[in-house]
Design a protein that fits this description.
Length: 99
């Protein structure tokens, strides 16, 4: 995690006062060349994270190992590779079929 804190000055040079507004951007993590997927594409299956991968016109259950995440994207450490298609929607009554 990285970040910096500096002093803020109001228009009169006395620092922040009641009613002043501060906008901040905090970087929690940063990595180069990270494979990510939308958070909504992942779900729990038998105690681990998984996605449905589009393969030969079928959706195949694929376990994945995840790293960092935020409210929109999840870092994929294992289980997917760049360029591989996946499905974002999983209906609760879907059953996994043969291979």
């Amino acid at each position: 995690m990285c970040g910096s804190v500096g002093s803020a000055a109001s228009k009169n040079g006395r620092g922040l006062e009641h009613g002043d507004r501060v906008e901040a951007r905090i970087r929690v993590w940063q990595k180069e060349r990270v494979l990510t997927a939308p958070s909504g594409a992942l779900f729990r299956h038998e105690g681990q994270w998984a996605v449905l991968v589009a393969e030969n016109g079928r959706a195949r259950l694929t376990p994945v190992a995840v790293g960092e995440d935020n409210d929109r994207r999840v870092e994929i450490l294992e289980g997917l590779r760049e360029g591989r298609g996946w499905c974002c929607i999983r209906m609760p009554n879907w059953k996994m079929g043969p291979g």
